[in-house]
Amino acid sequence: MEKPMLRAMLTKEFLLILRDKHALAALFIMPSIFILIMSMALKDTFSSDRAFVSYAVIDQDQTTISHEIASLLRENRTLKEYRQTVRPGKDLQDALNDDLTFAVTIVPGFSASLASEDSTVPLKLDAASDVQQNMLRLFKGELTGILMKLRIKTLLHELDPLLPGIAARTDARLMDQSSLITVQFNGLEESLFPTSTQQSVPSWIVFGMFFIIIPMSTIFISEHRQNTLMRMNGMNISIPALFTGKIVPYMVINQIQVWLMIGVGMFMVPLLGAPALTPGHSVTGIIMVSTGLSLAAIGTSMLIAVSVNSVEQATTIGGILNILFGAIGGVMVPKFFMPEAMQTFSNLSPMSWGLEGFLDLFLRGLGAGAVLTESLALAGFGGLMLLLAAWILARRTGNGL
Asked: Which long-range contacts (CB under 8 A, 24 or more apart) does 390-395 make?
């Protein structure tokens, strides 16, 4: 008797979901739009051409070496040359109070001092008062590298009469820095690098999956108001069978969401100029994480649905909980932007577990074994929420509620 009844319940649930056009839009269209927007918004964050700091060169020396220092700084794509001419004094102070980060002053006699054995004339570096110390160290390191390169070049030119051609051969090697170091990101092939899409797609997959909290809980409460649940109770339909009729349709919807969002990242995002998603090599891992996330979201939805008395309450609580989980879990603000204490605190959110699982697969190129812990944690969280929901529903049903 229960099998035909279960099929009827599943059919009913699918029909209710398909009729709710607003819920379908929230589940499929909203995450897709977020993926497109955030992939574009974060595009420069992962770009190797992104300028982190602005600088200006005040050349008071006006020599070949001072011009070369300015030229080598200009070649660094992570540095942005200040848009206006800067002069010492108030003009420099105003610029540093605006959006200038560093000002390099090449004082008179610096080039001659650099070429001599006794270098006593240093560069002058002015920094904005709010500059981060790590940025200051990086910029000083860049300047030091440039000066050492120029000093070696000067010494080689002095040796050229004794070793003909050594200066020309070494100049080319000094200027070609790309051949000295190759970078390979952890878990990725040598030709691949992290992109904004690899971050944004997992984030909004997780958020979109948890958004079923609202339509699922509202449908459940509507059935309670229409006495549908009471009639099912009168037909001796058990709570596990009732929950199965709710869980299966939404797990199917969640899986459709996941693969649709992956498709958006792979095929639609590149049309807007952002990098395409590389989904990794483990379909099994994706299914594991998405199944765990689905159970966590469904369990939370059921707990809300059986605990409140109105659609308005369910919508409000579900929406707030979804936003809080997302804000804490690194969906709205990537974890690497958070301070260390906040990154630790974010582990309280189940969205964080799912996000880390997807990042392991998409961003770090790991396999199913790497996401087993996150998948089990999510499934365990979802199972606990379902048990609490079943207990609350049994008490309310027994009390005629």
From this structure: 390/239, 390/240, 390/243, 392/303, 392/306, 392/307, 393/239, 393/306, 394/239
With a pLDDT cut of 70, the percent of the chain lying above it is 75
Contacts with 329 (C-beta within 8 Å, 6 or more apart), sequence order: 206, 346, 349, 350, 351, 352, 355
SS3 content of the chain, % helix, strand, coil (to 5): 70, 5, 25
For the question of whether the overall pTM of this predicted structure is more than 0.85, the answer is no
Dist. CA 108–CA 222, nearest whole Å: 81
With H, G, I as helix, E, B as strand and everything else as coil, classify residue 54. strand
Q: How many Å apart are CA 231 and CA 324, to the nearest integer?
A: 36
Task: Kindly report the number of other CB atoms within 10 A of residue 242's CB atom.
Answer: 21
Of 298, 280, 357, 260, the residue nearest 35 (C-alpha)? 260
Strand order in the sheet with 79-81: 79-81, 53-59, 102-106, 124-127
DSSP states of 92-144: HHHHHHTT--EEEEE-TTHHHHHHSSS-----EEEE-TT--HHHHHHHHHHHH
Contact 112, 150 (CB under 8 A): no
Tokens 């609350």, residue?
A: 392
Confidence tier at 181 by pLDDT (50, 70, 90)? low
| pLDDT greater at residue 77 or residue 288 | 288
CATH number of 53-179: 3.40.1710
Of the candidates 213, 244, 201, which has an alpha carbon nearest to the alpha carbon of residue 23? Answer: 213
Domain ranges within the chain, ordered by starting residue: 2-45+194-398, 53-179
> Is 253 buried (19+), middle (13-18) or exposed (0-12) by CB count in 10 A?
buried
d(CA 239, CA 231): 13
Given a cut of 50, is residue 401 above it in pLDDT? Answer: no
Q: Residue 97, Cβ neighbours under 10 Å: how many? A: 11
pLDDT in tens, 199-229: 788 888 998 888 887 787 777 777 767 666 6
